[in-house]
Task: structure prediction
Amino acid sequence: MKQHLSKQNRALLSELVRTDFKLRYQGSVLGYIWSLLRPLLLFTILYLVFVKFLRLGSGVPNFPIYLLLGIVLWMFFNDITNQGLKSIVGRVDLIRKVRIPRWLIVVSSSVSALINLTLNLLVVLIFLLLSGVDLLLTGFWLPVVVLEVFLLGIGLSLILATAYVKYRDISYIWEIILQAGFYITPILYPLSLIPEGFFQKTVMLNPLAQAIQDARYALVTHQTDTISSVYGNPMMRLVPILICLVLLGVGILYFKKQAKHFAEDI
Result:
């Protein structure tokens, strides 16, 4: 993992990303368009159920955009970890035939998810403009939030991909964790619906909850609770970031220790 991203590795990473895109949508009639349709279709369903019927988020300005942005960021994290989890096993032929830095395989799947996110954020921007929402100067902080989610996703992907080589049950366990995380994280509903105090503070220690709320504050409305407002201390924003960095460090060390055995263990 300490290797520099040489020209050869950059070329290899680029080829892995292109191959990943081709394989993912191979045989699909709509192809790459699905990368845009998935979050939009999920948004439409959740919007009708939770906003129109259950009336959630009625007190939040621009709640449809608020909801869409949360879904897009969640799907970004979901894509990174799900694709990263099976990335090593899925490239076993390449690992056995070519001398390749193993970490490039995991990172390539993360870059693919990042490209999808970029396209989806363009859709969010179009929705913002069509809705007549004023663009906030704080929107320039959005790339920092995306970077945080990206690093969190890579750290967990390294851990999951390494564990999946030996323990295939990991994929089922992670699927359950993601389903639970989707409802625990304030994506479908505003954070204000969670009881104040201990519960809100505990939820906001989740790096994804913090990142999604910060993204909404930066891009959609300043009437968004963030970890700083929940704790009454701006320095608390560093805690979820520290969790991301720790998970990334653990992932790198665990992956590096096991990488040399991948070809034999798969």
Observations:
- The CA atoms of residues 17 and 23 lie 10 Å apart.
- The chain has one domain: 20-265.
- The chain is about 70% helix and 0% strand.
